[in-house]
Protein: methenyltetrahydrofolate cyclohydrolase
Amino acid sequence: SIKHIFKFTLTPSRFLVKHSVRAVHKQNNILYGKPIAERILNRCINECEQFNEQYHRRPKLVAILVGGNESSKLYVRNKQRIAEHVGIGFQVINHLMHIAPSNLIDTINRLNNDDTVDGIILQLPLPLHLVDKTEKFIDAIRSDKDVDGHTTSNYNSYRQTSIPPITIPVVAAVREILLEINEPLQGKD
Structure:
């Protein structure tokens, strides 16, 4: 599914695997993160090609940035670089720091209704005057387009089922690493 591709290429956890995890020690063995990341990226490239063949377009992810937070800009640029590498169309919508809450909701609703947009990221943190409405903005994102898995419905789904429609990105990264080292997951909560 398209969200599977987004989860494995654009989330913080995937950057963790690609850039931060140099080695994980397990019983005198060393697991190098870079080969795992390369396998994941290659799988995502193949899935994007299949998506393109099926739908005659590239999957598209849109990141909404509010304000000029330099860390957020860098983070989104990294997501864009990886997305473009695997074949995902990536658009950044920049809003000024003092955007009205209703205008931000309008942007989210427009993206929700755009059939060419497959995933939406609301880059956090938001400016101080919007922080108290963060949950409202996140919950305005359609759950099937919520790449980060932050909407209340996706979060509740994660907590209540063993196979959520969207796996929270960090959980997906840890699961991928454990599968790579053949660590049994059955019975471990």
About this structure: DSSP finds nine helices and five strands in the chain. The radius of gyration is 17 Å.
